[in-house]
Design brief:
Blueprint (H helix, E strand, L loop, with lengths): L2 E6 L5 H14 L4 E5 H11 L14 H16 L6 E6 L2 E4 L2 E4 L3 H7 L3 E6 L2 H10 L10 H22 L3 E5 L5 H16 L1
Parallel strand pairs: 1-3, 1-6, 2-3, 6-7
Antiparallel strand pairs: 4-5
Helix pairs in contact: 1-7, 2-3, 3-4, 5-6
Length: 194
């Protein structure tokens, strides 16, 4: 069964949409499993004796992040099974050294996706969600910076699409409409597998 990579800027609500997708898929009789790339990286780091908060991973030394990123991709590629595997991750990670690709060629070739999804929301809304989510230490950003990040995500998605041959679908997660976004995603995946 195919692998679908779902990405979105921090705070856009991709994890919320994917939680809703689980319920929609269950009702629609489609077997899916969702794996969060950051969680797999955290677990790898924890086993190495580095119990880091997920918001601290992007602040680590680049060599370490690269190594753990590749190990996570290897681990996730071993999770492919009978259902659709959804990988919750990022087109890029904002590190101290700059925008770093979440899906460089060594990662993409292991995940081998059939579909790339970008979850988007209005820039002002992303800024508000980041500010109001007190459970996390997200980087705050101005509307202009978020617009730049949305553009950068699309550029990287285009590059990933050329490298894999997988199409890119953009889904908007409008205020209060995460269920609608999940249903749209479900429709695309259903058509792909049936
Ligand atoms: P990750 O776990 O993906 O953290 P994140 O970037 O902060 O993303 P989240 O999943 O927490 O945010 P989200 O956009 O899904 O928003 P949420 O649903 O919570 O990654 C952690 C770290 O792992 C990264 O920083 C990086 O270091 C590392 N990593 C991951 N992938 C990597 C890769 N490929 N390579 C290297 N490193 C990698 O929603 C946010 C808020 O909005 C919530 O309060 C929610 O209730 C609200 N909300 C959501 N939808 C709506 C809506 N429609 N209307 C109103 N409110 C909404």
């Amino acid at each position: 069964m195919p692998t679908v990579i779902v990405t979105g800027l921090p705070g856009v609500g991709k994890t919320t949409v994917l939680e809703a997708l689980k319920g929609v898929s269950e009702r629609g009789g489609l077997s899916i499993s969702v794996v969060n790339f950051g969680t797999v990286m955290s677990e790898i780091l924890r086993k190495r004796g580095m119990a880091l908060d997920r918001d601290d991973i992007r602040r680590q030394d680049m060599a370490l992040q690269r190594e753990v990123q590749e190990e996570a991709a290897r681990e996730i590629s071993g999770m492919k099974g009978d259902g659709v595997l959804i990988v919750d991750t990022h087109m890029f990670v904002k590190t101290d050294s700059g925008f770093w690709p979440g899906l460089p060629i060594n990662v993409l070739s292991k995940l081998s996706p059939s579909l790339l999804v970008l979850i988007e929301a209005p820039p002002e809304e992303i800024a508000n969600r980041r500010r109001s989510d007190k459970s996390r230490r997200r980087d705050e950003a101005s509307r202009a910076l978020i617009e730049q990040e949305l553009d950068w995500s699309r550029f990287l998605a285009a590059a990933c699409s050329v490298m894999t041959g997988a199409p890119v679908k953009i889904i908007s997660n409008e205020p209060g409409k995460h269920l609608e976004a999940a249903e749209e995603l479900f429709g695309i995946i259903s058509r792909m597998v049936r």
